[in-house]
Design a protein that fits this description.
The complex is a heterodimer of chains A (about 110) and B (about 300). Chain A has about 110 residues and is an alpha/beta fold. In chain A, about 35% of the residues lie in helices and about 25% in strands. In chain B, the strands form 4 sheets. In chain B, strands 1, 2, 3, 4, 5, 6 and 17 form a 7-stranded mixed beta sheet that branches. A 5-stranded parallel beta sheet of chain B has the order 8-15-9-10-11, covered by helices on one side. With about 300 residues, chain B is α/β, with parallel strands linked by helices. Chain B has 2 domains: about 180 residues, FAD/NAD(P)-binding domain; about 100 residues, 3-Layer(bba) Sandwich (FAD/NAD(P)-binding domain), CATH 3.50.50. Classes of the chains: A alpha/beta (about 110), B alpha/beta (about 300).
């Protein structure tokens, strides 16, 4: 889980991903170690892509609907959206290079 | 390009690296600990640690990681977030190349890069990772409430996590290629007594099937019989592979599995370079070993540095 990115909920999810600015959503939970591990990377990317991509996180414990809709069965899962559509996703505590590769797909 | 020099660099902040950091900071050594994710390493993948002395009730891997990090920080641990891509250990000073194209140099280095779960490399495994294939029961167990999942493996991790999974899943089938478990007796007793755990012996998994998510497994018994098992998820817990992609393996005389051999003082084949924790070539990979080796490695580094000056 990242400390410095905005937390989104089932309620505001649709409106956030609808933007034509690419949006990366970090699905996490407090009991997930690898979610914690990937946090500093997600924080750093949020800073680096400020203005070019929106990076947010969603707690899957508090928000069951959205993870269910996207068939998430492992965390951390990071899904990239653009104009409301899913572009691609990665699962697990992947490295910074892999996340940059993901974000660049929608830029 | 910036370059910084330290007397000691510790690479990785699992139990070995955090203990090395604690000892180095407390000894007031000129040190830096580099971690690419969060402090804790593989213990973050473990739901419960029941055998770390000093915690008679046991504690979660998460809590132990936080306590170890807090302990090292009490002595002014100097740490940074960074990803080391390669290193040159052939001369002095030792040189580490980071992802952001910065470089760091040091007189001595403790390698604590650890290990990661080993994949089976069977059809369907990669495609369905995150869609029912998992390597972390602690992370993903809650997604399988009232479902049927399989665990592959027979060691401590597989057997412990099979028990953990029964808190959520209706039924857990443990598939093992031998006819007895390798896990320690107390974990076996707990698993055998758990009515939600079933065992399939002498059997290997040859494929994971499913399109949108895992639907089942293809199994092969030692006697040649093929069968299928319908499950919604599969947890592959069959040992670890070394995190060694940034290491000069030939120079460090890595073993055939890619782990780094050391002497009893954790010294590697390269002078001034120590290895501690799961990256070491050894039989036993427990949190307590990693921590002990981290301490040993700092003392070996101190000795090396004294003789150097």
């Amino acid at each position: 889980m990242s400390d410095n990115v905005k937390e989104v909920s089932d309620a505001d999810f649709e409106s956030i991903i609808a933007s034509d600015t690419p949006c990366l959503v970090d699905f996490w939970a407090p009991w997930c170690g690898p979610c914690k591990a990937i946090g500093p990377v997600v924080d750093a990317l949020a800073e680096e892509y400020k203005g070019k991509a929106t990076i947010v996180k969603m707690n899957v414990d508090d928000n069951p609907a959205t993870p269910g809709k996207f068939g998430i069965r492992a965390i951390p899962t990071l899904i990239l959206f653009k104009s409301g559509d899913k572009v691609d996703q990665v699962t697990g505590a992947v490295g910074k290079a892999q996340l940059i590769e993901l974000i660049e797909k929608a830029l | 390009m910036a370059s910084d020099h330290y007397k000691l660099i510790i690479l990785g902040a699992g139990p070995a690296g955090l203990t090395a950091g604690l000892y180095a900071a407390r000894a007031r050594m000129d040190h830096l600990l580099i971690e690419k994710g969060a402090e804790g390493g593989q213990i973050l993948l473990t739901d419960w640690i029941d055998n770390y002395p000093g915690f008679p009730e046991g504690l979660s891997g998460f809590d132990l990681a936080e306590k170890m990090a807090a302990h090292a920080k009490r002595f002014d641990l100097n740490s940074m977030f960074g990803n080391v891509l390669s290193m040159d250990l052939s001369g002095k000073p030792l040189r580490l190349e980071l992802e952001d194209s910065n470089a760091l140099t040091c007189d001595s280095l403790i390698i604590c890069t650890g290990a990661h779960p080993r994949p089976l490399n069977i059809p369907g495994e990669k495609e369905l990772t995150g869609k029912g294939v998992s390597y972390c029961a602690t992370c993903d167990a809650p997604f399988y409430r009232n479902q049927h999942v399989a665990v592959i493996g027979g060691g401590n991790t597989a057997v412990q996590e099979a028990s953990h999974l029964t808190k959520f899943a209706d039924k857990v089938t443990l598939i093992h290629r031998r006819d007895e478990l390798r896990a320690t007796k107390i974990l076996q007793e707990k698993a055998f007594a758990n009515p939600k755990i079933e065992f399939i012996w002498d059997t290997t998994t040859t494929a994971v099937t499913g399109t949108e998510g895992v639907e089942g497994l293809e199994l092969l018994n030692k006697n040649g019989d093929k069968s299928t098992l319908q499950v919604e998820g599969v947890f592959i817990l069959v040992g670890v592979l070394p995190n060694n992609e940034m290491l000069p393996l030939e120079l460090l005389k890595a073993d055939s599995g890619g782990f780094i051999p050391t002497d009893l003082e954790t010294r590697t084949a390269v002078e001034g370079v120590m290895a501690a924790g799961d990256i070491r070539s050894k039989e036993v990979r427990q949190v307590i070993n990693a921590a002990g080796e981290g301490a040993t490695a700092v003392l070996a580094a101190e000795n090396y540095l004294v003789n150097l000056s």
